Amino acid sequence: MSQTMATQAPKPLPVVSDRHVDPHSYPDGIAFLDGQYLPMSQAKISVLDWGFLHSDATYDTVHVWNGRFFRLDLHLDRFFGGLDKLRMTIPFDSQGVAEVLHNCVALSGHRAAYVEMLCTRGASPTFSRDPRQAINRFMAFAVPFGSVANAEQLRRGLRVAISDKVRIPPASIDPAIKNYHWLDLVRGLYDAYDRGADTALILDFNGNVAEGPGFNVFCVKHGKLSTPAVGVLPGITRRTVFDLCAEEGLVAAPANVGVAALREADEVFITSTAGGIMPVTEIDGAAVAGGTVGPITSRLMALYWQKHDDPEWSSPVSYPDRPADDQ
Ligand code: PLP
């Protein structure tokens, strides 16, 4: 220690606040936390929560479009599957979670909403390192709908870069447990931005195409569709593409999708709850399908949005000012 440092008077310690004043702002919405419905700006978790400290959490995202949930049952099934595999328990069954989500949306008033249900391992009162001592925490929220692709990107198609980052292998983390292990995906995104692309695709352990930050990918060759079979989240929008293809008499199957096959595809699109079916027209600076949105992609996009008003695929939210019509 230098002499000057040693002779300096100690700096007074900062004052400990008794209330946190949050300098950030948040999208308009309603959250459910610890049995209470709150504005988004007040939904906070402890920094000691394992969900935050260890990414020990699972979640699911469903959307509301035109005041209707789209395929909520499938999202609930996937969420409860993840809870089970992670040995987490919440004080609700599937119907109870559906009711909480419904209330978040109805209270928010959003007719187009991004709705998330999540459970963290929680925190233990003693900061124990034993996950069994943590108290699991269920939360939910509804905020305005957001999309991976903006309106301009949906019209012209996304420009995608293939990153050299490798997706966490399924032997490490079962990708069917929807999770926040996104460092590979986020690093891929920065690679993509550095290369002038809109978003990224990352590869699996065998060098095949896996998925991107928040989406699955499909390619079309000679009228047949394929999408990576392993090492990816079994997306509900991906499943919806299979269902739409079955209705349309199109062949669609999970398969290994190599990088070359993707580059040489007739059409490429990505799928996500956040945006639906979204065209890709450029990969690593080279045009896919002549750089225009292909006919099968366009047809599936139109059908996808049509299904949002179909009671077989969607269920209405009952808003306080406008009760649902087909409940
Ligand atoms: N892959 C990953 C890693 C995701 O996080 C998501 C959605 O968030 C998807 C794929 C697409 O899944 P879904 O269609 O269910 O939104």
Describe the protein.
- With 327 residues, the protein is α+β, with helices and mostly antiparallel strands.
- The chain starts with a helix and ends in an 11-residue tail after the last strand.
- It has helices at residues 3-7, 50-53, 72-85, 94-108, 151-156, 183-194, 236-248, 259-263, 295-306, and strands at residues 30-33, 36-39, 57-65, 68-70, 113-123, 135-144, 158-166, 199-203, 209-211, 216-221, 224-228, 252-255, 267-272, 276-283, 286-287, 314-316.
- The strands form 2 sheets. Strands 7, 8, 9, 10, 11, 12, 13, 14 and 15 form a 9-stranded mixed β-sheet that branches. It has a 7-stranded antiparallel β-sheet with strand order 2-1-6-5-3-4-16.
- A hairpin with a 2-residue loop joins strand 3 (57-65) and strand 4 (68-70).
- It folds into 2 domains: 30-144, Aminotransferase class 4, branched-chain amino acid transferase, N-terminal domain (D-amino Acid Aminotransferase, Chain A, domain 1, 2-Layer Sandwich), CATH 3.30.470.10; 151-309, D-amino Acid Aminotransferase, Chain A, domain 2 (Alpha-Beta Barrel).
- 40% of the residues are buried.
Question: Which properties best describe this structure?
Answer:
327 residues; D-amino Acid Aminotransferase, Chain A, domain 2; nine-stranded mixed β-sheet; seven-stranded antiparallel β-sheet; D-amino Acid Aminotransferase, Chain A, domain 1; binds pyridoxal-5'-phosphate
